[in-house]
Every structure is written in structure tokens, then in C-alpha cells.
Amino acid sequence: MLSASLTGTRQKGETPFAENVKHFGNVLIDWLPFSSSTKDYPFWTGLIFLLIISIIFIYRLSKNKQHSSLEKIANTFTLVYALFMLLSATFSKYETINNRLLAPFFIPCLFTLSFYLTGWFKLIRRPLLKISFLLFSILIGVATLLQYYKIDLDTYQENKEGGIGGYTDDDWVNSETLGFIKKDRTIFQKRMPVYSNSSHAVYFYTGEHLSILPEKAHKKDLVKFNNLPQFVLIWLNNEDNESIITLEAIKQQQNLTILKEFKDGFIFQCSPK
After folding, report:
1. What is the pLDDT of residue 167?
2. Is the pTM of this model over 0.85?
3. Sheet containing 231-236: order of strands
4. CB 143: neighbour CB atoms within 10 A?
5. pLDDT-based confidence at 18, cuts 50/70/90?
6. Which helix (H) or strand (E) holds 258?
7. Residue 225: burial class (beta carbons within 10 Å; 0-12, 13-18, 19+)
């Protein structure tokens, strides 16, 4: 109600629906067994997946299967979540569809694609065919686990020295700027707003609340920011966020007085020119 918007300020999407289906397919390829054989067809992988879960949904709906069954709930969630991500990524602008964004539907998706296996298994009458089907299913399961094991092993080898990427990485852990702020909280006691190009990192290491710099696309936020009478700016060189206003752009509008200078950043006191 305060923002007069249902979902907050959103930028218009720039990625076409077909391109988002391709990104969607790339994530599925990473999840599916034998991904090397489908990696060249991400669009078709994504499209065929949508068709399969849609057909399963329509079939169960038309047969009036139990609406409260776990299978139907999982299938409905998988379909709705997939369509929601694809459509919202088309109409709104945010990061490319990836593992993180699709993680909530991984288990329902796995359930949706596998719950028919037990029914098919019961329908097979010939012992030899039943054993063959069972062995084939086990083979697919083992192949998938081996694929995930290799991915996890590669990830471990990549991160075991420098730590997992993010704010626990060595560059952040050993940051001079963050180390100083952890020991000296004076800047938060100046009774003026504190901004940072990496407010998440400052909060992660100090627990102090502060504001992130406005994004270039949000003109009203930029005007409001430029009209602030005074504020403190914590600038960290480790952060690489192209969406927010740059330090050079701030210097064009503000007088920056260096309060502290470090190898990896600065603390400025800012006032309008």
C-alpha cells in the first residue's frame, strides 16, 4: 500500500519467453541424468518438460483423481511454479533463471516425474520383463547419483582453498574495511544515513542496518538519494554490482570527504555540491 504497487518497483523484462525456456532447459539439463546428450538442446528440453507435466496435470484433472493426493499436489506445484518463473522472468527484469531460482520445485518435480513408476511396475506380469524394468530403473538412479557426485566433487575441489563463494570468501573475511567497521562503529552514531554498495556484506559482518545504493533504472530513488543533506558512504572494491549507481556518478553530484581509506575500500562523508 505504501508503494502503491502489488510487488514493489519492477523493471520491465528484456528476455523473451523463448529465451527463458532455454535458460529453464539448461537448469533441467544440469539436473537430469546423461546431461551430456541433451546439453545442445536446452530449449527443446525445457519445452518438452513443460508439455509432459502439463499432460500429467490435465490427465489427472480429467480423470478426477483425488485432488488432495500428494501426486496431484506435487504435479500442480511443479507446473504452476515453472510457469510462474517463466512468465515473471519474461515480464519483469531480474537475474537469469538458474538453479537457485528453481530450487524450490526440485523435489516436487522429481516426485511428479517418478510417481508413475511404481504403477507401471505393478502392471508388468512377466517376471523377466519386471526384473529388466527394475534393473533399468536402478541403473538410471545410480547414473544420476554418480553425475551429482562428480558435480559435488568438482565444486569441492574448486572451493576448498578459498572457501565457498559469497560473503564467506577469503576476500571478504580478510577485508580491511569490514575489519575496521567491526571494531569501530562510530560511523553509525553520526545520526546520518549510512549507505554502501555492499550493504549485505556490512550487515553480514557487523549486524548494522544500512541502505544499499539506488539502482540506475529507478530514477525517483536516484533523485531522492542525490537530495540527501548528508550521508556516510561505505565503498567496497570487492563488490561488482553493475545495477547500482557508480562511485563516479556519486562524485558528480556529491562532495566526498575521505574519513578512512583501506586497501579494499573507503569510508566517505558526502554532502551535495
Report:
1. 83
2. no
3. 211-212, 194-196, 231-236, 265-272, 254-262
4. 12
5. very high
6. strand 254-262
7. buried
Please give the grid coordinates belonging to residue 167: 560473503
The ranges assigned to domains in the chain are: 17-159, 170-272
> Does residue 65 carry a pLDDT above 70?
no
Place of cell 530514477: 219
User: Using CA atoms, how far apart are residues 129 and 161, in angstroms rounded to an integer?
Assistant: 49
- pLDDT, tens digit, 9 for 90 and up, residues 145-182: 888 898 889 888 887 776 677 788 788 888 999 999 99
Give the cell for residue 251: 562524485
What does DSSP say about strands 231-236 and 211-212: parallel, antiparallel, or unpaired?
Answer: unpaired
Give the integer Cα–Cα distance in Å for 212 and 196: 5
Mean pLDDT comparison of 9-13, 52-56, 79-83, 225-229, highest-scoring range:
79-83
Q: Which residues contact 30 (CB under 8 A, 6 or more apart)?
A: 99, 151
CA–CA separation, 221 and 218 (whole Å): 6
CA dihedral 268, 232, 183, 261 (to 10 degrees): -10
Q: Is the CB of residue 236 less than 8 Å from the CB of residue 196?
A: yes
Q: What is the pLDDT of residues 230-255, one digit of tens each?
A: 999 999 998 888 889 999 999 999 99
Q: 262 pairs with which residues across the strands?
A: 265
CA distance 118 to 156: 35
